[in-house]
Amino acid sequence: MTHANCASLVRIIFGPPFAFVLGLQLLYPGKYPTLEEHWPPIVSLLVFLVSQSTDAIDGALARKYGKTRFGAFVDPLADKIFIWSYSAAFAFTVAWNAIPVLTFLFLLDAVSTVGRVLKYNSPEKEIAANQSGKKKTVCHFMAIGFFMLTLVFYPESVKSDVGFWSAWTSVLGWIILLPASWFSGCSLWEKMGTAQEMKRTD
User: Fold this and answer.
1) What pLDDT does 197 receive?
2) Which residue did the predictor score with more confidence, 3 or 196?
3) 3-state SS string over 58-97?
4) Alpha-carbon distance 85 to 16, whole Å?
5) Any idea what the CATH number is for the domain that residue 25 is in?
6) CA angle (98 as vertex; 56, 11 as ends), nearest 5
7) For the whole model, what pTM was predicted?
8) What is the DSSP code string of 43-60?
9) Rounded distance between C-alpha atoms, residue 72 and residue 131, angstroms
10) Per-residue confidence (pLDDT) for residue 107, from 0 to 100
11) pLDDT digits (tens, 9 = 90+) for 15-61
12) Alpha-carbon distance values, 48 to 2, 65, 82, 147 (Å)
């Protein structure tokens, strides 16, 4: 368990609980005044950004102290658990319009993750995220980040999906999900091509 791997695990451990708190506030606005008082949208945004920053930290630590196969496996897994926790918090509350593209994106991520799990015990097979996968992750993080900015700039938007989608930040977040889907598809295609090439080599 290296320092880089510990940084990755931060996203797995803290992502779902904080996303649950956010989802609770979105699903029942005004029902938990004490929670909303001590945990306003700006705090959720800051926690999201700080937690997401561990993605850059674990990469820097891995480059400095050495990469491990477990690290190559857990880093993209941590990204997916973290970002999908927040995606679910929005999709099942105010961001209904994003469900189709998020569903497509989720299916691509699920296939990619299953493939990575199956390859984990085969040292000759690459399991690290490729460039397209990394671009997808950046776009997905940005999209959810803009959704969260909506809650900060337009706090009344939590009361309805109509109000949420009337904000330009929400629309921009939805638009950014489109290239995220494209990069996710490209990543999966590249992995399939690599797998076919390895089979021909064998």
Assistant:
1) 57
2) 3
3) HHHHHHHHCCCHHHHHHHHHHHHHHHHHHHHHHHCCCCHH
4) 5
5) 1.20.120
6) 25
7) 0.89
8) HHHHHHHHHHHHHHHHHH
9) 13
10) 94
11) 999 999 999 988 888 888 888 888 889 999 999 999 888 888 888 88
12) 23, 26, 9, 12
Say which amino acid occupies 18. Answer: F
Q: How many domains does one find in the chain?
A: 1
Domain with 101, as residue range(s), is 3-201
Q: What is the dihedral of CA 120, 19, 158, 149, to 10 degrees?
A: -70
Classify each residue of 113-131 as buried b or exposed e, where b means 16 or more C-beta atoms within 10 Å of its C-beta.
Answer: eebbeebeeeeeeebebbe
Of the candidates 84, 79, 77, the residue with the CA atom closest to the CA atom of residue 120: 77
Inter-residue contact 49 to 149 (CB < 8 Å): no
Segment 63-83, tens digit of pLDDT: 888 788 888 888 888 999 999
Q: Which two tokens stand for residue 132?
A: 């397209």
pLDDT band at 198 (very low <50, low <70, confident <90, very high): low
99: left (phi over 0), alpha (psi -120 to 50) or beta: alpha
Q: Read off the tokens for 16.
A: 């779902």
Q: How many other C-beta atoms lie within 10 A of the C-beta of residue 28?
A: 13
Both tokens assigned to 38: 């001590």
* Amino acid (1-letter code) at residue 128: A
